[in-house]
Design a protein that fits this description.
With about 475 residues, this protein is of the alpha/beta class. It folds into two domains: about 240 residues, Rossmann fold (3-Layer(aba) Sandwich), CATH 3.40.50.2000; about 210 residues, Glycogen Phosphorylase B (Rossmann fold, 3-Layer(aba) Sandwich), CATH 3.40.50. It is built from 18 helices and 16 strands. Strand 9 and strand 10 form a beta hairpin. Helix 4 packs across helix 5, helix 10 crosses helix 13 and helix 11 packs parallel to helix 12. The longest helix is centred in the C-terminal third of the chain and has 21 residues. Bound molecules: adenosine-5'-diphosphate-glucose. Adenosine-5'-diphosphate-glucose (ADQ) binds next to helix 2 and helix 14. The site of adenosine-5'-diphosphate-glucose (ADQ) has 25 residues, from helix 2 and helix 14.
Length: about 475
């Protein structure tokens, strides 16, 4: 069996995970994937160094070997805080109003991708399968090819792929997309993002898409397909059954007495639609005065990407909004919103999900959204809660039995909360069962098998016989 080399911006070793705290969806999913495969997980350590040395820190935890490098401050500013999180992240989440274009970001991004390629290439053996993750590392495959790597190399994008009309606002967009043709397989979360990619290829690059999903541009043939990521359903059931989860559940229930708990759990990010959600909840309180004092909304949102100023802004906005809504509606014995800025270990989170009758998962745009799946997986099968889900999350294509809403509409959020509170148990069970079938059937194990099998079956020798991609525009 070939080894699997996973390359992502950050590496999260299993040992670090067990300490708890907020984990990005990517790290949670990959730690689970790497437990089964021999191989290596390569990425940035999260540390800064005065001068880039290329020194690799190799560690082994619970069967997973990790290899990390430090980056220079300028690298982190231009590549991570810059091009990845101030240019690509907003643009790919349809926020061209927030996307910043700065020449130094682009050059920093390419420099760090080269540094990744230079350092990881010697660790890769001829038979290894290489799996590159996410928007931080789009040109890495091409960088590896330039170092004569003939391996099968796949790329998976965890966030949406934007429509062609938005993507063309990115300077050098063709250069970025052309670099992707160095991969053998490109994976997206949903058919919707895949369709947008097809459009771009056809309209901007004069390429074609064959019936089996092969993309042809000039002499390059690349497979592209949708692989919706799932949660580790088995591991999550274990977390729900733990003593920690039970205690967390009781702690939350005790604190609200007999009120209905509505929960939101997100990284503090403008793409998650938190301000719109708060306003939707406010509309619900406004329209249903009989429900005031009977519901309690808990929003857990640990800050992320604090060095990027748009994140400071959303933080201030939510502080202000939660304060204003509480000031407007609170009674001496009731606070409408509890807004908590910290992360929790997974088992505690599982207990909080279980205690909540309703989850509000209303991103304005999301590649998939694992919180929606975790909430469903944490429910009591005999008396499950109701998931209110944005129709703009990738997860909405699988979790069709959720109450789907337009996250920009206060009215729709308000109506969905009212409907969820009134929903008969039989209907809750029927909807939950349908969603659970999808979550169990297409979990993280299914996801990684689907991707790795597809990568393995890419036409043999394809990468060797074809010329490297030309990058000039
Ligand atoms: P994220 O944008 O980070 O992931 P999401 O998929 O919801 O979003 O994953 C968040 C993860 O972090 C979940 O596992 C959740 O439990 C955890 N988490 C969030 N808040 C937490 C808290 N307060 N305490 C502890 N844990 C917390 C990106 C994409 C998504 C895609 C994933 C995986 O943006 O669209 O689903 O990658 O591909």
């Amino acid at each position: 069996m070939s080894r699997l080399i996973v390359i992502s911006n950050r590496v999260s070793a299993p040992k670090a995970r067990s300490a708890g705290g907020a984990q990005g969806g990517l790290s949670v999913a990959l730690a689970a994937a790497l437990r089964e495969y021999r191989g290596l997980w390569f990425g940035w350590s999260g540390n800064k160094t005065d001068e880039f040395t290329g020194h690799i820190d190799l560690q082994r935890h619970e069967g997973v070997t990790t290899a990390t490098i430090d980056l220079e401050e300028q690298d982190v500013d231009e590549y991570y805080n810059g091009y990845a999180n101030r240019t690509l992240w907003p643009l790919f989440h349809y926020r061209i109003d927030l996307a910043e274009y700065d020449r130094s970001f682009g050059s920093g991004y390419e420099r760090v991708n080269e540094r990744f390629a230079e350092t990881v290439a010697p660790l890769i053996e001829p038979d290894d399968l290489v799996w590159v993750h996410d928007y931080h590392l789009i040109p890495l495959g091409m960088q590896l090819r330039e170092r004569r790597l003939k391996n099968r190399i796949g790329f998976f994008l965890h966030i949406p792929w934007p429509p062609q009309r938005l993507l063309v606002s990115l300077p050098f967009h063709q250069r970025l997309v052309r670099s992707m043709l160095a991969y053998d397989l490109i994976g997206f979360q949903t058919e919707e993002w895949l369709d947008s990619f097809h459009h771009y290829i056809e309209r901007e690059m004069g390429g074609t898409v064959e019936a089996d999903g092969t993309i042809c541009v000039g002499n390059r043939r690349v497979k592209a397909a949708a692989f919706p990521i799932g949660i580790d359903a088995a591991e999550f059931s274990g977390a729900v059954a733990s003593d920690t989860a039970r205690m967390a559940n009781e702690r939350l229930r005790r604190s609200v007495e007999d009120k209905h708990v509505i929960i939101g759990v997100d990284r503090l990010d403008y793409s998650k639609g938190l301000a719109e959600r708060f306003l939707g909840y406010r509309r619900f309180l406004e329209e249903h005065d009989d429900c005031r004092g009977r519901v309690s909304f808990l929003q857990i949102a640990p800050p992320s990407r604090g060095e990027v100023h748009t994140y400071e802004h959303i933080r201030e906005q939510l502080d202000e909004l939660s304060g204003r809504i509480n000031g407007e509606f609170a009674e001496i014995d009731w606070v409408p919103i509890r807004y908590v800025n910290q992360g929790y270990p997974r088992e505690e989170l599982a207990g909080f999900y279980r205690a909540a009758e309703i989850a509000l998962v209303t991103p304005l745009r999301d590649g998939m959204n694992l919180v929606a799946k975790e909430y469903v997986a944490a429910q009591d099968p005999e008396n499950p809660g109701v998931l209110i889900l944005s129709r703009f999350a990738g997860a909405a294509l699988q979790l069709k039995e959720a109450l789907l809403v337009n996250p920009y509409s206060k009215d729709e959020i308000s109506d969905a909360i009212a409907k969820a509170l009134d929903m008969p148990k039989v209907e809750r069970i029927r909807r939950w069962r349908a969603m659970m079938d999808s979550i169990e059937g297409e979990d993280v194990v299914w996801w990684r098998k689907a991707f790795v099998d597809a990568l393995q079956s890419v036409g043999e020798g394809q990468s060797e016989t074809e010329k490297p991609v030309e990058l000039q525009e």
